[in-house]
Amino acid sequence: MKISKKALGILLLSLIFVLSACGNSDSKKESTHDSHSDSGSHEEMDHSGSAEVPEGLTESTHPKYKIGSQVIINASHMKGMKGAEATVTGAYDTTAYVVSYTPTTGGQRVDHHKWVIQEEIKDAGDKPLNPGDQVLLEASHMKGMKGATAEIDSAEKTTVYMVDYTSTTSGEKVKNHKWVTEDELSAK
Length: 188
Fold this sequence. Notes:
single chain; mainly beta; eight-stranded antiparallel sheet; 1 helix; YdhK; signal; DUF1541
Protein backbone atom coordinates (compact mmCIF):
# COMPACT_ATOMS: atom_id res chain seq x y z
CA MET A 1 0.00 0.00 0.00
CA LYS A 2 1.44 3.31 -1.05
CA ILE A 3 0.70 6.37 1.13
CA SER A 4 1.20 9.84 -0.23
CA LYS A 5 3.32 12.35 1.69
CA LYS A 6 0.26 14.51 2.23
CA ALA A 7 -1.75 11.64 3.74
CA LEU A 8 1.21 10.64 5.93
CA GLY A 9 1.56 14.23 7.12
CA ILE A 10 -2.12 14.44 8.02
CA LEU A 11 -1.90 11.10 9.84
CA LEU A 12 1.16 12.22 11.83
CA LEU A 13 -0.42 15.57 12.75
CA SER A 14 -3.58 13.77 13.87
CA LEU A 15 -1.55 11.38 15.98
CA ILE A 16 0.41 14.24 17.58
CA PHE A 17 -2.84 16.08 18.33
CA VAL A 18 -4.41 13.02 19.98
CA LEU A 19 -1.31 12.25 22.02
CA SER A 20 -0.88 15.83 23.18
CA ALA A 21 -4.52 15.95 24.27
CA CYS A 22 -4.04 12.76 26.28
CA GLY A 23 -0.90 14.07 27.90
CA ASN A 24 -2.67 17.25 28.92
CA SER A 25 -5.52 15.59 30.81
CA ASP A 26 -6.34 17.35 34.03
CA SER A 27 -6.74 14.95 36.91
CA LYS A 28 -6.66 17.53 39.69
CA LYS A 29 -9.15 17.16 42.52
CA GLU A 30 -11.62 19.97 42.97
CA SER A 31 -9.82 22.26 45.34
CA THR A 32 -9.73 25.78 44.08
CA HIS A 33 -10.34 28.44 46.70
CA ASP A 34 -13.35 30.35 45.41
CA SER A 35 -12.49 33.48 47.34
CA HIS A 36 -8.94 33.51 46.03
CA SER A 37 -9.47 33.01 42.31
CA ASP A 38 -7.44 36.10 41.46
CA SER A 39 -4.61 35.44 43.83
CA GLY A 40 -2.78 32.37 42.60
CA SER A 41 -3.50 28.71 42.32
CA HIS A 42 -4.99 26.82 45.21
CA GLU A 43 -5.41 23.67 43.16
CA GLU A 44 -2.97 21.81 45.38
CA MET A 45 -5.04 22.42 48.52
CA ASP A 46 -5.42 19.25 50.54
CA HIS A 47 -9.09 18.72 51.24
CA SER A 48 -8.67 15.91 53.73
CA GLY A 49 -6.02 15.66 56.36
CA SER A 50 -5.06 13.66 59.38
CA ALA A 51 -6.72 14.22 62.73
CA GLU A 52 -3.30 15.18 64.12
CA VAL A 53 -2.98 18.76 65.27
CA PRO A 54 0.13 20.86 65.80
CA GLU A 55 2.00 20.48 69.07
CA GLY A 56 0.87 22.96 71.71
CA LEU A 57 -2.62 23.48 70.27
CA THR A 58 -5.17 23.70 73.10
CA GLU A 59 -8.61 22.12 72.84
CA SER A 60 -11.38 24.64 73.45
CA THR A 61 -13.06 24.11 76.80
CA HIS A 62 -16.27 25.93 75.81
CA PRO A 63 -16.60 25.91 72.01
CA LYS A 64 -19.80 27.22 70.47
CA TYR A 65 -19.90 24.01 68.40
CA LYS A 66 -18.91 20.89 70.32
CA ILE A 67 -17.23 17.86 68.74
CA GLY A 68 -19.91 15.87 66.92
CA SER A 69 -22.10 18.93 66.27
CA GLN A 70 -23.77 19.21 62.88
CA VAL A 71 -23.08 22.60 61.29
CA ILE A 72 -23.33 24.46 57.99
CA ILE A 73 -20.13 25.93 56.51
CA ASN A 74 -20.58 29.56 55.46
CA ALA A 75 -17.01 29.96 54.17
CA SER A 76 -15.89 29.48 50.58
CA HIS A 77 -12.20 28.71 51.08
CA MET A 78 -12.61 25.99 48.47
CA LYS A 79 -15.08 25.18 45.74
CA GLY A 80 -17.94 23.09 47.14
CA MET A 81 -17.42 24.23 50.73
CA LYS A 82 -20.00 27.02 51.11
CA GLY A 83 -23.33 25.62 52.23
CA ALA A 84 -21.94 22.16 52.96
CA GLU A 85 -23.25 20.24 55.95
CA ALA A 86 -20.38 19.35 58.25
CA THR A 87 -19.56 17.49 61.45
CA VAL A 88 -17.19 19.13 63.93
CA THR A 89 -14.23 16.84 64.63
CA GLY A 90 -12.13 19.28 66.68
CA ALA A 91 -12.35 22.69 68.35
CA TYR A 92 -9.26 24.64 69.46
CA ASP A 93 -8.54 28.06 70.95
CA THR A 94 -5.76 29.90 69.12
CA THR A 95 -4.94 32.85 66.90
CA ALA A 96 -5.85 32.34 63.25
CA TYR A 97 -4.03 34.22 60.51
CA VAL A 98 -4.69 35.21 56.94
CA VAL A 99 -1.32 35.00 55.15
CA SER A 100 0.20 35.72 51.75
CA TYR A 101 3.19 33.75 50.48
CA THR A 102 5.03 32.41 47.47
CA PRO A 103 5.06 28.59 47.39
CA THR A 104 8.44 26.89 47.88
CA THR A 105 7.67 24.93 44.72
CA GLY A 106 7.47 28.13 42.67
CA GLY A 107 4.50 29.50 40.88
CA GLN A 108 2.15 32.36 41.62
CA ARG A 109 2.03 34.10 44.97
CA VAL A 110 -0.91 33.02 47.13
CA ASP A 111 -2.67 36.04 48.57
CA HIS A 112 -4.91 36.03 51.64
CA HIS A 113 -4.87 32.30 52.42
CA LYS A 114 -7.28 31.40 55.23
CA TRP A 115 -6.29 30.01 57.79
CA VAL A 116 -2.91 29.31 59.31
CA ILE A 117 -2.88 29.10 63.10
CA GLN A 118 -0.31 30.25 65.66
CA GLU A 119 0.94 26.69 66.17
CA GLU A 120 1.64 26.27 62.42
CA ILE A 121 4.13 29.15 62.33
CA LYS A 122 7.78 28.44 63.14
CA ASP A 123 8.93 29.98 66.41
CA ALA A 124 5.69 31.96 66.80
CA GLY A 125 5.65 31.65 70.59
CA ASP A 126 2.54 32.53 72.58
CA LYS A 127 2.06 36.17 71.62
CA PRO A 128 -0.09 36.99 68.59
CA LEU A 129 1.75 38.23 65.51
CA ASN A 130 0.90 41.49 63.77
CA PRO A 131 -0.11 42.32 60.20
CA GLY A 132 3.04 42.86 58.15
CA ASP A 133 5.16 40.42 60.20
CA GLN A 134 7.27 38.02 58.10
CA VAL A 135 6.99 34.39 59.27
CA LEU A 136 8.03 30.88 58.25
CA LEU A 137 5.10 28.50 57.69
CA GLU A 138 5.04 24.98 59.09
CA ALA A 139 1.52 24.29 57.82
CA SER A 140 1.19 21.97 54.86
CA HIS A 141 -2.36 22.71 53.74
CA MET A 142 -1.12 23.16 50.17
CA LYS A 143 1.81 21.96 48.11
CA GLY A 144 4.70 24.40 48.61
CA MET A 145 3.30 25.93 51.79
CA LYS A 146 5.52 24.24 54.37
CA GLY A 147 8.78 26.17 54.67
CA ALA A 148 7.47 29.19 52.76
CA THR A 149 8.10 32.71 54.02
CA ALA A 150 4.78 34.48 54.50
CA GLU A 151 3.46 37.86 55.45
CA ILE A 152 0.70 38.15 58.05
CA ASP A 153 -2.30 39.93 56.47
CA SER A 154 -4.55 39.79 59.54
CA ALA A 155 -4.91 38.01 62.87
CA GLU A 156 -7.94 36.88 64.83
CA LYS A 157 -8.07 35.34 68.31
CA THR A 158 -10.78 32.71 67.93
CA THR A 159 -11.84 29.10 68.13
CA VAL A 160 -10.86 27.16 65.02
CA TYR A 161 -12.63 24.00 63.97
CA MET A 162 -11.62 20.86 62.15
CA VAL A 163 -14.58 19.47 60.19
CA ASP A 164 -15.72 16.59 58.02
CA TYR A 165 -18.00 17.55 55.14
CA THR A 166 -19.16 16.52 51.69
CA SER A 167 -18.44 18.91 48.82
CA THR A 168 -21.61 20.51 47.47
CA THR A 169 -20.20 20.45 43.93
CA SER A 170 -18.34 17.16 43.58
CA GLY A 171 -19.77 14.95 46.32
CA GLU A 172 -16.21 14.33 47.53
CA LYS A 173 -16.06 13.43 51.24
CA VAL A 174 -13.57 15.65 53.05
CA LYS A 175 -12.19 14.46 56.39
CA ASN A 176 -10.46 16.54 59.07
CA HIS A 177 -10.39 19.76 57.06
CA LYS A 178 -8.30 22.40 58.82
CA TRP A 179 -9.43 25.19 59.56
CA VAL A 180 -12.71 27.09 59.73
CA THR A 181 -13.40 29.76 62.32
CA GLU A 182 -16.42 30.01 64.56
CA ASP A 183 -17.95 32.86 62.53
CA GLU A 184 -17.70 30.75 59.36
CA LEU A 185 -20.11 28.14 60.80
CA SER A 186 -23.76 28.12 61.74
CA ALA A 187 -25.95 25.57 63.50
CA LYS A 188 -27.72 23.07 61.26
